[in-house]
Specification:
The chain is of the alpha/beta class and 286 residues long. Helix content is 41%, strand content 21%. The strands form three sheets. It has a five-stranded parallel sheet with strand order 8-7-4-9-10, with helices on both faces. Strand 9, helix 8 and strand 10 form a beta-alpha-beta unit.
């Protein structure tokens, strides 16, 4: 795996200064990629948002705690899977299905987050498309074993992702290489016109009973959580409290999600995002 060295320090400007020094390692690409190779020494001011994403990426890539949380989620999912499949289906009963998100649910994309942060950029579609086509994301702890077991038990797996059709070939190549099962067009439901996954979930329900849903963003479970309102999303956690750890299996993702536009009042540029972040955190302390 290709790594880059860096040290994060707090500069006089109260922004994060970043230098590629010898303090720690964080992945910006894998398998000797030329797309994400960044070996020259860099020093520049960094926004609070991007500095935060570097730090959370380091936690995801380096901490045993993150791996343990992923394994915990997949252990719970395995218990639910074994319980549901312990009896044969009754005549006429729909087959079981598992619906899963892909990014930060099955695979780790922080290498792209780091690459973007080192360039002084937040999410950019063109960079994301290159990353997907590169097919270098790594599997989360416990993910491959869980989905292989579900496949062996005769459960259908539907990959409902907001990657778009341009990303299909690279995504399928990546997941096959990692050993995930049922990687074919009939089990892939990518984003078409909307990021709302309700219609795609309902399509699965036409022929299957959904045993569980896995995701890192609460919109992976119900459209209720797609709203850009923090208070309403918090209310939703209480509304669906009984589902978490049962039908809804949540994977940790501190890097991005609908919580960002909910906090910021929509999708905004990096400069405004930085300003809102600092303001909200200062207000929280009072």
């Amino acid at each position: 795996m290709l790594h880059t060295k860096k040290l994060l320090t707090l500069g006089a400007s109260s922004l994060l200064s970043l230098s590629l020094l010898s303090s720690c390692f964080i992945s910006v690409g894998t398998r000797g990629s030329t797309v994400y190779q960044q070996e020259r020494q860099v020093s520049h001011a960094m926004s609070p948002t991007l500095g935060g994403k570097l730090f959370s990426s380091a936690w995801i890539q380096r901490s045993a705690e993150y791996k343990a949380l992923c394994q915990q989620a997949y252990n719970i999912a395995t218990e639910r899977l074994l319980a549901a499949t312990s009896r044969p289906l009754a005549p006429g009963e729909k087959r079981w299905a598992i619906v899963t998100d892909i990014d930060e649910t099955m695979v780790d994309n922080t290498a792209n987050s780091v690459y973007q942060a080192l360039r002084g950029e937040d999410y950019v579609q063109a960079s994301w498309d290159k990353w997907c086509d590169q097919a270098d994301a790594v599997a989360l702890q416990g993910a491959v074993d869980f989905f292989r077991r579900a496949d062996a038990l005769g459960v259908d797996i539907y990959y409902i992702s907001n990657r778009n059709e341009l990303n299909r070939a690279g995504t399928m190549r990546n997941l096959r290489a990692l050993g995930f099962p049922q990687i074919d067009d009939s089990h892939f439901m990518l984003k078409d016109k909307t990021s709302d996954k309700t219609a795609r979930r309902n399509k699965v329900l036409e022929t299957h009973n959904i045993l569980m849903l896995l995701g890192d963003n609460l919109g992976d479970f119900d459209h209720f959580f797609d709203i850009h309102d923090e208070a309403v999303r918090d209310q939703g956690v209480m509304r669906f409290a009984e589902e978490f750890g049962r039908r809804f299996i949540v994977l940790p993702n501190p890097n991005y999600g609908t919580w960002e536009p909910a906090m910021n009042g929509g999708y905004i540029g990096l400069t405004e995002k930085d300003q809102k972040l600092v303001t909200k955190l200062r207000t929280q302390r009072k």
